[in-house]
Structure to design on (221 residues):
């Protein structure tokens, strides 16, 4: 039954993109809560702003307020798209890792955005989820960079951290991208309210456009 919820949610957004859903039908996406002491709650205005942008620019019908869901909860199966961020430690228990794997195998999608400092921890914890899988870097030609908005050079740079180029990594199951990790870009800071980080308007727009591309790609897979 949980798997059917995910499939139904995908159909809702796909139909919405074609203007075929009822006005009161919406899909809900979620922010992941995890253990380890990292600030999973950082960038509180990011997802609501991204949702608003997607609803305007993609004609999507995403519920305006994202949910919060524990990675080990069965409730995660209610959300076809889950976003995870933070600056520090991330810990998945064995049951968290099993649950997250089942969720991704069932049709769910996890986007992790490094808010600076999460890199060594998310790599370690995703190894618990998929010990047989490696992160694969997505080239600039990958379709996620060429949805409604085009990024010919791949992932845009939003915030400077360690003077490294932005990179996008994925994990695939049967040729389906189920996990996206955006590193050295900090998309979430670009999605936040303008006064939070004082990003120039063009930089903030690039962040929102890339986020919309991610949403668009996920629901068209």
């Amino acid at each position: 039954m949980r798997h059917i919820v995910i499939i139904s949610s995908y159909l809702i957004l796909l139909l919405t993109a074609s203007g075929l859903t009822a006005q009161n039908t919406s899909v809900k996406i979620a922010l992941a809560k995890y253990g380890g002491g990292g600030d999973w709650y950082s960038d509180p205005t990011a997802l609501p702003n991204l949702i608003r942008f997607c609803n305007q620019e993609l004609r999507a019908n995403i519920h305006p307020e994202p949910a919060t869901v524990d990675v080990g909860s069965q409730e995660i199966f209610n959300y076809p798209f889950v976003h995870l961020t933070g600056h520090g430690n991330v810990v998945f228990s064995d049951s968290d890792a099993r649950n997250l794997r089942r969720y991704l195998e069932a049709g769910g999608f996890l986007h992790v955005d490094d808010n600076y400092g999460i890199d060594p921890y998310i790599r370690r914890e995703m190894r618990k989820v998929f010990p047989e899988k490696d992160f694969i870097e997505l080239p600039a030609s990958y379709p996620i960079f060429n949805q409604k908005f085009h990024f010919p050079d791949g992932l845009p740079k939003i915030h400077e951290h360690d003077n490294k180029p932005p990179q996008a990594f994925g994990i695939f199951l049967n040729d389906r991208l189920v996990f996206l990790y955006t590193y050295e870009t900090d998309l979430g800071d670009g999605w936040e309210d303008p006064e939070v980080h004082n990003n120039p308007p063009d930089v903030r727009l690039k962040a929102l456009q890339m986020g919309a591309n991610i949403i668009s790609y996920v629901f068209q897979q």
Notes: The domain at 2-220 is CATH 3.40.50.12140 (Rossmann fold).
